[in-house]
Here is the input.
Amino acid sequence: MSRLRKVIAERMVESLHVSAQLTSVAEVDVTNVVSLREKHKKSFEAREGLKLSYMPFFSKAIVDTLKAHPDRKSTRLNS
Here is the structure.
């Protein structure tokens, strides 16, 4: 095994030991988001020079939800 591969393997194992390994899955109906994106993606690309991804829609949904439910926010504790 090359030195580089060995270091990468060591770092991956270290990451498993020091980081939370968690996967959470939620099923969500994004039919309306798909329709909205399809409606605006050509004009967005013409105006901005970038393709319209789903990320702005998901980001807005997260921000709006956190504003509506501030008690659900997590805080980072000083260690």
Q: What stands out?
A: The chain has a mean pLDDT of 90.
